[in-house]
Amino acid sequence: MTHWILSAVECRSTASVWIASVGYAKLTTESVAARGIAVLYRRWPNKDPVVLAALEHYRNGHPVDVPVTGDLLAALTGMGEARAGFFAIVAAVAVSGLLVGTGLTPAQVRDEILGDRRPARIHAIYQRAHDHGENDLRRIPPTVLAMQLDLLMDLEAVRAARIESIDDAPVPVARPALRGRTQAAKTWCGGAGAVAMMWIMEFVADPERMGESTLPGGRVLGWAEWGPEDGLPVLLCPGAATSRWLGFGPGVVHSLGVRLVSVDRPGLGVSSPSPGRTFADFAADMRDFAALRGLERPAVVGNSQGAPFALACAVDGIAAAVAVVSGADEVAAPRFAGALPDELRGIVDRVAADPLGAEEMFRGFGAEAMLAMVMGGSPEPDLRVYRDPAFAAAYRRALDEAFAQGSGGYARDTVLAMGRWPFDLGRVRVPVDLWYGELDTSHSPDNGATLATRIPHARRHVVQGIGGAVLWTDAERILRRLVDRAASGVAAAQDGDPAP
Predict the structure, then answer these.
(1) Is residue 63, in this structure, part of any structural domain at all?
(2) pLDDT single digits (tens) 192-220
(3) Total structural domains in the chain?
(4) Parallel/antiparallel/unpaired status of strands 220-226 and 209-214
(5) How far is CA 218 from CA 32, 273, 274, 278, in A?
(6) Residues 325-357 pLDDT 10s
(7) Residue 80: which of 151, 27, 159, 13 has the closest Cα?
(8) Considering the chain, what is the average pLDDT of its residues?
(9) Lower Cβ count inside 10 Å, N or C end of the chain?
(10) Residues 431, 474 within the same domain
(11) Which of 341, 350, 337 is nearest to 414 (CA)?
């Protein structure tokens, strides 16, 4: 009996014809017995176990090797493509009556066929990725490792507890895929989707809204937005020479109710130049911009060189809460005099002695030099983010637009960031979180440890296994924390007390 069915499902195309022409409902034991296989009734009481046995036999007779690609996404996609035929047969049998006939769920059918062997090959793929440093198995909960088949085979909504277990995991997980089973199925069953197994994050996406706002003095600020227009305003101060085009967390801003707004600083992108501007000038611009765009008192994210600009907003009372992510530290502070590499120490000294000359030096930088500096100074986990095709394209576009007016905006930013900060961090009265990757050696001599002690009620987070790309790998954790802290900051401000 098994051999008769298996001969019909020996290849994917034949299986499709067999299921389509006969179907589970019309496959009767009598029709099979009529082909001269009398052993049918002695071995199987009805057709349900016959079909299950046939599926298991087909699966055993068509083993799938664990792909060896050196890349987690490619390996998972390759596994899905190799299993496409098997899943096509299972799906066709399931929808044509097996589930009704047996009373089993898809997950129970899966377990009946695969048994304890179900997770072995997937775990092998993750283990190989762990061995060559692409992920850290110690940081991935079992719920993530089991997701590949579970989402395809469980005919029920993903439970909140399971979503929360993945939300809390410090790994790149694409939350929207938990609710988007179609894309997950396409990827697992051989599609060439960009998201594989709910585990590869969408780091960036094009802005949902873009525009320019005219300040009271007539200058223009360019901006871009992601997320719901009525969401909690989060103002992004981008990194060095990065225009409004490069956001973060596109897969979570809607689910968290965040209206993410990125603004080009003066002289970058489409924002009007403001020669000789200061941190105080920037904070004043942001106050005016928030009023123009209806942001009220936004939470603020400062990434890389955008960190001191975000902190300036906090000191000036503009921010409801602040997240400093891979923040450029005050490297000109005396406490760091002996901790800086010689080359950096030389630049800091030049900024202090001759700020105008240093600014002119920085005008020699352009998009190519900035890209080379970032790629050449980043650890491998960061490079896996930066080399992601979508990210690489978005980053390059952001750099090109940032330098569209020349290098003046970047040069002024850099002189401000690398000089002494003229504001008192002790005056910050809103919640501040500092986020640094443990592998980050570019932004702070001590990954924000000293900076955290200078800001009242600041909390420092060191993320394992990543460097300066933590804004994109841990976007949901950062935004979720910021939303909660903004709520506490607003409440504290209304009470007249510092935020906890």
Answers:
(1) yes
(2) 333 333 334 579 999 999 999 999 999 99
(3) 2
(4) antiparallel
(5) 84, 11, 11, 18
(6) 999 999 999 999 889 999 999 999 999 999 999
(7) 151
(8) 77
(9) C
(10) yes
(11) 350
**Residue 481 clears pLDDT 70, i.e. is over it:** yes
306 and 373: one domain? yes
Report the DSSP beta bridge partners of residue 324. 302, 434
Ramachandran category for residue 164: left, alpha or beta (phi over 0 → left; psi -120 to 50 → alpha): alpha
Q: Which residue has the tokens 């570019």?
A: 442
Whether the per-residue pLDDT at 229 is higher than 90: the answer is yes
Quick: pLDDT tens for 36-90. 444 444 455 666 666 666 666 666 777 777 777 666 656 666 666 666 555 555 5
Do the beta carbons of residue 486 and residue 256 sit within 8 Å?
Answer: no
Do 405 and 488 lie in one domain? The reply is: yes
Provide the pLDDT for residue 19: 38
465, 318: one domain:
yes
State both tokens at 498.
């510092």
What domain range is 133 assigned to? 2-188
Burial of 440 (0-12, 13-18, 19+ CB in 10 A): buried
Task: State the Cα–Cα distance between residues 378 and 240, nearest whole angstrom.
Answer: 15
State the Cα torsion 488-171-146-380 to the nearest 10°: 180
Q: In this structure, is residue 156 part of a structural domain?
A: yes
d(CA 144, CA 140): 7
Confidence of residue 490 (pLDDT cuts 50, 70, 90): very low
**10 Å Cβ neighbour count for 155?**
11
Structure tokens at 404: 């569209």
Residue of 303 and 25 predicted with greater confidence: 303
Strands (E), 215-364: 220-226, 232-237, 258-263, 299-303, 322-325
Highest mean pLDDT among 233-237, 381-385, 492-496: 233-237
CATH code, domain with 457: 3.40.50.1820
CB 287 within 8 A of CB 216: no
